[in-house]
Amino acid sequence: MAVRLNSRRLASLEKVGSATLISLALCFSVGLVLADSVKVACFIGADQLTELRDFTREVNWDNTNKVVKRCAALAKTKDYKLFALGKSGVCLSGPDMKKKYHVKGSSKCNHGIGIGNNMFVYSLAPRPSLKAIGCYHDKSNDRALPVEYANFRGKKIDWGRMELTVYKCAQVAYDKGYEYFAVQFYGVCYSGEDAGETEYAKHGESVKSDDCWEFDKHSGFGVGKDLTNFVYRIKQVG
After folding, report:
1. What is the β-pairing status of strands 128-137 and 147-151?
2. What pLDDT shows up at residue 26?
3. Superkingdom of the source (predicted)?
4. Which label site among 148, 167, 181, 232 has the fewest CB atoms less than 10 Å from its CB?
């Protein structure tokens, strides 16, 4: 969209100087970054990442978008694909964030910013593209997918938007290098290094419609219940 400035407005900008023009340009560019950023989830481990800048004195807890935009802009200038806000407003990232942010497990954040060692993670890359595979049985003493790599149960679940939980599991699975993953018990994420078809189906496909909750008929997305896995395959990113 073209922006027109009249002669009076241009003159006032010239008086202010180049610093203002640079600031305005940054505002426009940051807005584009925010449009591209994707919320991932809240995790423990802010102390494991590199601090890019401290925005704690600038946080408006009624609307944290401005701080998120500024942190996104900093991450983008360094070509980082992930960033986080933790410690009440410290912008965090790093070249190896993909390997670190999920190690200590998930947590609960408010307003998109973590408190203390909690951090809310954002991605500047598109969400992983998913294929819903279906509902499969599991056993507590012989897990079809042996690695419980994240848990988003409890207050972390938005029951009206269950696809958010699926995409949280998907993002972490992608960052850990998994091709297949499953959501069990509404918000527990399972996978493994060899989580191919022979693994996730080892206890058989469920034939009961109520063993899993298919919350979106159009996409076929669902979540497993107790000892059932709703399985997905990550096709690509984008």
Report:
1. unpaired
2. 37
3. Eukaryota
4. 148
The helix (H) or strand (E) run that includes residue 11 is helix 7-16
The pLDDT value given to residue 116: 96
Q: pLDDT below 50 — which residues of the chain?
A: 1-5, 7-35, 238
Which amino acid, 13?
Answer: L
Of 187, 195, 202, residue with least CA distance to 233: 195
pLDDT in the model for residue 18 = 42
The first and second tokens of residue 158, run together, are 């938005």
Name the token pair of 82.
């992930």
Look up tokens 């401005």; give the residue: 66
Burial of 145 (0-12, 13-18, 19+ CB in 10 A): buried
What pLDDT is stored for residue 136 in this prediction?
A: 97
CA dihedral for 220, 42, 154, 147, sign (positive or negative): positive
Burial class of residue 117 (count of CB atoms within 10 Å of its CB; 0-12, 13-18, 19+): middle
How far from chain centre, in Å, is Cα 143?
26
- Entry pTM: 0.81
- The Cα–Cα gap between 105 and 8 comes to 55
pLDDT at 147: 96
